[in-house]
């Protein structure tokens, strides 16, 4: 955990859920990426819950794209939960909504990965 970002990891069957709260910025993005990458080795699916994020910098977007590419290469479902402007606006402005699988709730994300 950093002062700006809190991450918790839960499991739902073989799906790993990473819940993020606070801010993903240049300072905390490395830890955010490291935490997500660690889950790729054990998960059958990965859900990243960004509902608690208040600020999402370009470094966070880069992390999502990087982890998405790794998950796709490993045939691992990867879903991002985002429902508010702080996260959705930068994603849509960069056109990443056509690349990333987005859902508005954790329940919808779990359904999308078949759990």
From TrEMBL:
GO molecular function terms listed in the Swiss-Prot or TrEMBL record: anti-sigma factor antagonist activity
InterPro entries attached to this UniProt entry: Anti-sigma_ant, STAS_dom, STAS_dom_sf
CDD domains: STAS_anti-anti-sigma_factors
Signal sequence interval, chain numbering: none
Ranges for domain STAS: 5-113
Family statement drawn from the similarity comment of this UniProt entry: Belongs to the anti-sigma-factor antagonist family.
PANTHER family, A to Z: ANTI-SIGMA FACTOR ANTAGONIST TM_1081-RELATED, ANTI-SIGMA FACTOR ANTAGONIST TM_1081-RELATED-RELATED
Name of the protein this chain belongs to: Anti-sigma factor antagonist
């Amino acid at each position: 955990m950093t002062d700006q970002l809190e991450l918790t990891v839960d499991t739902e069957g073989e799906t790993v859920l990473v819940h993020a709260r606070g801010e993903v910025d240049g300072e905390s993005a490395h830890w955010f990426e490291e935490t997500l990458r660690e889950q790729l080795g054990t998960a059958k699916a990965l859900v990243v819950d960004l509902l608690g994020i208040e600020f999402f910098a370009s470094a966070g977007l880069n992390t999502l794209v990087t982890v998405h590419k790794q998950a796709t290469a490993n045939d691992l479902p990867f879903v991002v939960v985002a429902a508010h402007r702080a996260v959705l606006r930068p994603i849509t402005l960069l056109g990443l909504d056509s690349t990333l699988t987005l859902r508005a709730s954790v329940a919808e994300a779990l359904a999308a990965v078949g759990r």
